[in-house]
Design goal:
The complex is a heterodimer of chains A (about 300) and B (about 375).
Chain A lengths: L1 H35 L2 H6 L11 E2 L1 H5 L8 E2 L1 H12 L2 H32 L5 H11 L4 H14 L6 H5 L6 H12 L3 H10 L3 H12 L1 H16 L3 H6 L9 H4 L12 H32 L4
Antiparallel strand pairs in A: 1-2
Chain B lengths: L3 E10 L2 E11 L4 E5 L6 H9 L6 E6 L2 E2 L10 E4 L11 H13 L2 H4 L10 H18 L15 H13 L5 E5 L7 H18 L2 E6 L2 H7 L2 E6 L2 E6 L1 H6 L4 H6 L6 E7 L4 E4 L2 E7 L5 E6 L4 E4 L8 E10 L4 E7 L5 E6 L1 H4 L7 E6 L5 E3 L5 E2 L1 E4 L6
Parallel strand pairs in B: 3-8, 3-9, 6-7, 7-8
Antiparallel strand pairs in B: 1-2, 1-4, 4-5, 9-10, 11-12, 11-14, 12-13, 13-22, 14-20, 15-19, 16-17, 16-19, 17-18, 20-21
Classes of the chains: A mainly alpha (about 300), B alpha+beta (about 375).
The structure holds adenosine-5'-diphosphate and magnesium ion.
Chain lengths: ~300, ~375
Amino acid sequence: MIGHATSFSEYMKHIVLIFGSLIVILPFYVMVSYSLKSPHEIATNSGGFIGAQQPMVDEYCVKLGNPPEECMQKPLVYNYTQAFKKAPLLRYLVNGLVVTASIFFIQALIAVPCAYALAKLRFWGRDFVFSMVMFCLLIPVHTIALPIYIMLAKVSLTNTYAALIIPWTISVLGIFLMRQFFMTVPDDLIDAARMDGMNEFSIIWRVMLPTAIPALLAFAIISVVAHWNDYFWPRVVITGDRSLYTPPLGLREFKGDADGSIWGPMMATATVIVTPLIAAFLLAQKRFVEGITMTGMK
Amino acid sequence: MADIRLRSIEKMYGETAALCGIDLDIRDGEFLTLVGPSGCGKSTLLRIIAGLEEQTRGEVEIDGKSVNKIRASKRDLAMVFQSYALYPHLTVWQNMITPLRLRDLSSLERMPFIGRFVPGQRDKVKSLHTLAGETAHTLKLEQLLHRKPGQLSGGQRQRVALGRAMVRKPRAFLMDEPLSNLDAALRVHMRAELAELHRNLKTTFIYVTHDQAEALTMSDRIAIMIDGEIIQLGTPDEIYKNPRDRRVAEFVGSPKINILSGDVDESGNVSIMGNHTGIRIRKRIKKVHLGIRPEHFRLVNGNGATDSWPFHVTYKENLGSDFYLHGHLNGSKNRIITRAAPDEVGRITIGETVKVRARQGKPMVFCDNDCRIDVMQEAGYGSA
Ligand SMILES: Nc1ncnc2c1ncn2[C@@H]1O[C@H](COP(=O)(O)OP(=O)(O)O)[C@@H](O)[C@H]1O
Ligand SMILES: [Mg+2]
């Protein structure tokens, strides 16, 4: 009987989890499906997941004066070529890469030494500083967006990469996570490094960092996902120059057209934007979970 | 090679004193053990010598020069930690060569790729490799060089930790309970190896332990620490045979020394529960404590002797070569342990009362506040 009860509760758990994951996956399903279908299929909600892939006419190509027979394309090809043609998506992807990579790099450069000091050095006011770090975790970015925008505007940094990067370089979450991890590193290891002749900076980069790779990786994913997907901040500080658009801003290129044909390319763009993240997560999945468990965030 | 001198070292943690006025001269090439119960400040003292902790007052001198203002990395001392503290992300070989690289190569020479183009760097690196190779050979680590610390047993990690300390040929080794994490058999084995290592290296060793057996077996001299003070300093023999304080007598020796409370009459004769001991002291006090080690008892045949005491046996502990008899002096709270040879013990059963007496000249007399009282003479005692 006990075995039966256990397996029943196991079933229930799985049903709830499956239901939850369906809710999460559904929008992705729609996104990928739309990116494969023709406008007609999207409008009439027909064609299953991938659509019939009947060749369709590219209106824009016809407008340019080509004969319609030469403008026939499969919806899939049409949507994805449009995604890259209508907006310089490649350029946006490179922007996204530069911005997220720089943000993470500088965040780590600042958070690791800070976390080391907060976890392992004894100095006056350390507990107060750490409580301020905890306090800053509670401030939503949107409340300070305006002051930051004004400051950036005052020093004429809006519409630059700097505007996209600088406000995020000090991550209290990163400091907090790394500090929690460093607390678990034994003091003896640091003392041994000191006896071996390392100075504090060598200890940080040659001893603490290598032991903290899983935690850093967990933070990397949190940081990269947040900034790769961020629509709000780039929208605020990039007002004119489209060559500075990050991928989420690229989606704006498709808005406002009454023409239904826009859904396919738009969803194709969205698919292209999220694919790198999903691929990165799958690659790092194991270590990510390790890192989260270790920092006690579970 | 170094002599290390500590002058009235004090260490306060907030209001509490961890060390109160330590004076200690450690001679060049000596194996000195700091031993004491846990929490007495041994690690704190060692870390002050190392430079990892700053003393509140007092002075540390190495080879006659004050090192108060010199950082740990510049004192040229090596430390072995109880937890070994190996770099978990580096192989055994890298662990051993790291201190050498840090000492002998400039930061430019240590740089990956670029370092190779600094003139003379190749030769330096080669000599480092020879040094590390020699150490690995001495400690029989050659088979393990490519493993990470996580893939080693406790004993192997211990060796690597030693190796990492040895490669630099430091002026002195500081060891903080390096054997505590090993199993009993390995610990005994490593005691012998460490003592041999000390003989070969002829370097100063400062060794911290809470295990009096380690201290007795390895050291040239032992400093007994209790509550932040060194209460006796001497060779293992002196410490064992002639403790100047009751706490020392109780700490050193296993099983622990027996402490019996005794009364003193007007002429200074000490008796235990009305039984004569034959011990006389000059000091005019009423109460004393008598310390007698288990091996200083003798079983006595027959009931006649007046200086023997009735001993009620409650437990026989068989160690093969010896027996320890646990029990109490008849009807009292004076629990004692005596050592006896197996052939003497054969006929004794648990619950039986036998007669014991202390060997002449062996009992030590202590006052109420732990000080040692010198014995004037022993009279009326048959030869042991
Ligand atoms: N960082 C510290 N802060 C406060 N008290 C400490 C600290 N380190 C050690 N102590 C205290 O100092 C005393 C001596 O500690 P320690 O030297 O580690 O003892 P031992 O190594 O002999 O066991 C202990 O009572 C301990 O509680
Ligand atoms: Mg200790």
